[in-house]
Amino acid sequence: MTREQVRAAVRVIPPGGDYVWDGVSEDDRPLNDAELKAGLEVALRKRGRPAGSGTKEQVAIRFDRDVLDTFRKAGPGWQTRMNDALRDWLKSHSPA
Length: 96
Description:
Elements: H1 3-11, H2 33-44, H3 65-73, H4 78-92
């Protein structure tokens, strides 16, 4: 758009300054309240990792490669299964 086209377009804006949709182009249609609300929710949504449950603690630990490979080969959720296996072991053994 040239500078003169912009000036001409600005001259046809209604005196009240409010946008009036011509009903022709859907791209120019103003958003309704539901669409505005949905857009704001998306824009204001926090990014990053979801908050954890607060019941787990991150630690650095070393396991034998074959143990890790066995759990990983079972697919997604291997860390949870490993945690369950350790919990099951604690039921029948003393941690000390």
